[in-house]
Design a protein that fits this description.
The protein is an all-alpha fold. It has helices at residues 6-9, 13-24, 29-36, 40-58, 64-74, 80-98. Helix content is 74%, strand content 0%.
Length: 99
């Protein structure tokens, strides 16, 4: 494949494994829960986070710093309140610099 979409290249290896297993399980969250030996809600949460990562990766023209902060929050490496604060302060600083 000559071209990888930005959203796909931004995913981690374990996300790609999850996607592959999900496709091979015909999209069955129950089957995914069995394979990972976790509950259905746990798999649903993982899928929801993966969807958020893909949406973040698809945002054209998005600021790389803001996208990084959002990815960190989705990956539980940063809590959402801190992420919102960092993004807000960053945008305020940029506005001051531009204005």
């Amino acid at each position: 494949m000559d071209y990888l979409p930005d959203w796909l290249s931004a995913l981690e290896a374990e996300d790609l494994v999850f996607i592959k297993k999900f496709i091979l399980a015909s999209g069955s969250l129950k089957e995914m829960a069995r394979q990972y030996d976790v509950t259905y809600p746990t798999v649903r949460l993982r899928l929801d986070r993966l969807i958020q990562k893909i949406r973040i990766g698809e945002q054209e023209g998005a600021d790389p710093y803001v996208s990084l902060i959002k990815r960190l929050a989705v990956n539980d490496k940063l809590d959402f309140d801190t992420a919102k604060l960092l993004i807000h302060e960053y945008k305020m600083t940029r506005q001051k610099e531009e204005g």
